C-alpha cells in the first residue's frame, strides 16, 4: 500500500536508522567517538555540547540548567543526507571522527568550542586547506544514482489523469509511487477529501486502506500516530472528523510533519470555520467534504508544496520581514496608522513575500500560522494575484478566531519602480517580478467595509508615495536578502537562518549564489539545504533534548545549530569547514543580527 | 485615444456584477474585457474581485465598476452584497454545461426579486469556441479542440428564455474574445439615462465621489486604460 522502497536500495539499513515516533531510541550518545568501522554509508556525524553558561553577542551571560550529556536522537539521518557514493576515502571518514570528538569543557561562548578541536598533523591541515572552499553539496552532484533526492526534480509534475492517452494505469501508479511526499486528507468515514498527487481513481483504494488502519487503532483507544515502511515515514493526525496523513521520504521528523498537517487543517478551517466543519459531519458523517472545499485544492497544494520544497518560515514557525532602517519602518507604520479606517482590525504591507509593516489593535497580535495562510493564498497560489484588480476575501483566521470569518481587502501595487501611479493595477505587468510585488492587506470583521477599506488603501498609497516610502520599499525589495559575505566577511558559511524567538520572525542569507541555478537544479539544491536545516531543527527540538549547540559534519556539508532563549540559529557550510571556522562565522552573524535587530524585525508594529 | 483630446464627455460610473456557476468563465470574461487577455487554467476566484474599465460611448463615457464574484456555492450567501445597488448584471453560463444554465436562471430570478428594479441583466453563454458552429473561433487559433461539438445548450433555448425574461443575450468566447466587448457595450447602451443620473445623486453610496474623481482623471494625459477602452 505504501509507496514501496526501491528494490535493491539500502532500505533495511535506513529503516534501522529511523527513530520510532516516541520515545526516541538512543542512536548516538553524545559521548565517545562515533567510529563505525566498515560502515561505508555513515554520512552524518554529530557532536553535541551542553553548555551551562553562554555569552550573548552583547556580552551578557545566561545560565541554564543542564542535564548531563543527553542522547541525541538523529532524525532519520540516513535520509536527506545523500550517500557519499564513491568518496570512501579516508579524508571524509577521519573528518567525521575528528569533528565528533566531544567537547567536555563548558564553553564560555560558542567560539571556545574551537578549543575542543583535536590537533591534526600539518599534512592534514594542508590537505584540508586545499579543499576548504568546497561548497555544501558539491560532492553530491555526480552521485545521482545513490542520491536520496534522485527524482525530486519531478516531484511536482502532474500525474496524467485517466483521459490522457497512451498512459497505462500501471504507469500512473508508478508515477504516483515515485513521489517522495504525499499528503492525504480523508473523513473518518473514509471519504477522500484531498490528495496532493493523483486523482481519485488512483488514490481511492489507498485512502480506504489508510482509513481502515487508522480507525482500527482509534477503536482501540490508542490512536496511531505514525509508522515506517522501508524508507518512508507515515504520520497521522486526527482532527475531529478528519484524518490527515503525511507520507514522506524526505526525512522530516514526526513533529515537523505533524506541524505541516496542522497547517493543512488550518487551511480547511480558514475556508469553513470550525463550527461549520463540525456541523457538516454531525448531521451527515458521510458527507463529501470536497464540495464545500471546492476551489481550495490549489491552496492546500501550494501549502503542501512549500513544505516539500522546504520552507524556512514553516520550519521555524516564524515570518520574514523586509529589512528596512528603523526610522523608515516607523515612518511607514505611522503613515499607515494615520489613515486608519475605524473598520480596520489588522493592516499589513507585504513586499516580495516579506512583511514591511503591521498595524494592529493593542489587544490582538497576529499569529504566524494565520499569516502563513494569508501569505500562501496571496503569494504562493496564483488565484488572487492573477486576477488583478482589488480583492475582497472572506476568510477565517483560525488562530485568531476559528469560529467566524473576517474580510480581507487585498490589492497589489505595481512592482515596477517607474510607475508613479498608486492606483491599483488594472493590468498585470507581465514583467513584474512576483518576488518584488507590494501588496496591501486590510482585514476587517465587517463584511460591508470594502469601500471603506478601499478608501483607506488609496490614502495609504498616497501617503507612501508622497513620503518616498514606496521607493524605499522597492529598493529594499530589490536588494534582496543579505549576502553572507556582507554579514560575516570571509566566512566559509554558505547559508544561515536566524530566528528571533521573541519576535517570532526570522531572517536568512540570500539563496542566490550557492543555492541557485536553472531549474530543476535549483529546486533540488534548495531542498538539500532545507533537509539539513530540518535535521538540525529536529535534533534541537527533540522532546527532552537540552541541546544548546549542535555541530554536524557530513560528506556534503557541515552544519551548526545554536539555540538560546533569545534566538535559534542554524547554518551550513561546505563539508570541509572546520568547527573553528564555523563557530567564528556563527558568532559574527549573530552579532550582526543583534546589531541589526530593529532593521531585520518588526518589533511590535504600529499599535492602535 | 483620440477622444481624450476633445472635450470631456459626461461620464458616469456603473456598478456591474458577474454571477454564475463556478468555472463558467466569469473572471475570464472580465480579464478579456479589462486586459484583453486570456489564461488557459485560471484559478477559481476566492470571494470577489473588484475591477474597473471604461467604455466610451458616442455621447458619454461609462466607467464600469465590476464585481467579479466567486461561483462556488460557499460564497453564494455573499452575493447580495455585490448585486445590491448594481445597475447591471452579467449572468454567465457555460454553453457546454446544461446545469450552469439552470444555475443562471436561479440567479436571474434572484436578481429580479432582490436587486434594484431597473437593473439591466445580460445572459451570457460562454465558451463558444468549444462548439463547431460559431464564427468566432475560425478566425483565431485552433477551432475548439478537434471536430467535436461540445455544445450542450442550444442558442434557441437560451434565447427564448432571455426574451421571456427581458434579458440581453449573447454567446461569447473569453478565449477568442468573440462578442466580449459587445456584451459590455450593449449593457452600457441599455443603462437608462435616468439610472445614470441617480448614480450621481446622493442615494448611491460612494458613487458620487467616484464620479467626481473620474472627471478629474479624464483631463490627465495618461490613462492606462484608454487604449483598452471598448471599441465603440
Ligand atoms: N475554451 C474556453 N475556456 C474558457 C473560456 N472562458 C473560461 N475558460 C476556462 O474555464 C475555466 C474557468 O474560468 P474562470 O474564468 O476562472 O471561471 P469563473 O466563472 O471565474 O470561475 P469561479 O471564479 O470559480 O466562479 C478556466 O480554465 C478558463 O481558462 C472560454 O471562453 N473558452
Ligand atoms: Mg472567477
TrEMBL record, chain A:
Residues 493-597 form the FUZ/MON1/HPS1 third Longin domain. GO terms for cellular component: fungal-type vacuole membrane; Mon1-Ccz1 complex; multivesicular body membrane. The keyword Protein transport applies. Residues 343-461 form the FUZ/MON1/HPS1 second Longin domain. It is found in: Endosome, Multivesicular body membrane; Prevacuolar compartment membrane; Vacuole membrane. Residues 1-46 are annotated as: Disordered. It comes from the Eukaryota. It is a peripheral membrane protein. One of its GO terms (biological process) is protein targeting to vacuole. Keywords: Autophagy, Endosome, Membrane, Protein transport, Transport, Vacuole. Residues 181-303 form the FUZ/MON1/HPS1 first Longin domain. It holds the Pfam family Fuz_longin_1. Belongs to the MON1/SAND family. PANTHER family: SAND PROTEIN-RELATED, VACUOLAR FUSION PROTEIN MON1 HOMOLOG. Required for multiple vacuole delivery pathways including the cytoplasm to vacuole transport (Cvt), autophagy, pexophagy and endocytosis. In complex with CCZ1, is required for multiple vacuole delivery pathways including the cytoplasm to vacuole transport (Cvt), autophagy, pexophagy and endocytosis. The MON1-CCZ1 complex acts at the fusion of vesicles with the vacuole, through its regulation of the SNARE complex during the coordinated priming and docking stages of fusion, and particularly at the stage of tethering/docking. This is Vacuolar fusion protein MON1. It comes from Immersiella caudata.
UniProtKB/TrEMBL annotation, chain B:
Residues 138-147 have a biased composition (Gly residues). GO terms for molecular function: GTP binding; GTPase activity. Residues 132-151, 196-232 are annotated as: Disordered. Keywords: Nucleotide-binding. CDD domains: Rab5_related. This is Ras family-domain-containing protein. NCBIfam families: small_GTP (TIGR00231). Gene3D superfamilies: P-loop containing nucleotide triphosphate hydrolases (3.40.50.300). The keyword Transcription regulation does not apply. It comes from Immersiella caudata.
